[in-house]
Specification:
186 residues, globular, 6 strands
């Protein structure tokens, strides 16, 4: 078993593993995480040249008022079911941690909890809730219109996003990729 960072020519195989474990649109929905420029932050376990486990993160600065910190967002941590129980993802997470330390990461954000992440030392830091309001309960408004996103909306969305005092610092290309990735229906 070989544990190391992913190589550019293996990136599509890594995405295929993620698709097989999670869902068919992983590559489309997480274009920044799986971007060719991010392969150095994709860690893989290979058995006879086949990717069987992976841990990925993307490094992004976060602006908090006047301060900026480095945040690593961990995602698409997965192992082929035939290889589970061997601690592969845990070992890959350790490799990722070494790389994060070398990049002076301040905070690591992980969307999962417990298990491998608790052993890594992570703790629950927040609560996320979802609210659905039936359309019948909303009063019709004539001053608001809802329409599909158009590329011409990009400058306004970006300006609006940049008014938030707490936000990820995104270059325009990255912002476009994320916007496109999050408009895939689930």
């Amino acid at each position: 078993m070989e544990l190391r960072s992913c190589r550019l020519e293996e990136r599509l195989d890594a995405i295929r593993l993620s698709i097989s474990v999670f869902k068919e649109n992983m590559g489309d929905q997480f274009p920044v995480l799986f971007h060719p420029n991010n392969v150095g932050r994709m860690f893989v376990a290979l058995d006879e040249g086949h990717i069987v486990s992976m841990v990925n993160y993307h490094l992004t600065p976060v602006k908090i008022g006047p301060a900026t910190i480095k945040v690593a967002s961990v995602g698409s941590v997965c192992t082929d079911p035939k290889y589970r129980g061997q601690g592969l993802a845990s070992k890959l997470l350790q490799l990722a941690e070494q790389k994060m330390r070398s990049e002076s990461v301040d905070v690591v954000v992980i969307s999962g909890e417990g298990g491998i992440y608790a052993a890594f030392g992570s703790g629950f830091a927040g609560d996320m809730r979802e609210a659905k309001i039936p359309g019948a309960l909303l009063s019709p408004r004539t001053d608001v219109s809802i329409r599909p996103y158009a590329k011409t909306d990009f400058p306004v969305l970006r300006r609006l996003y940049e008014t938030d005092p707490v936000r990820f610092v995104r270059q325009a290309d990255e912002f476009r990729l994320l916007l496109r990735g999050q408009t895939y229906p689930d």
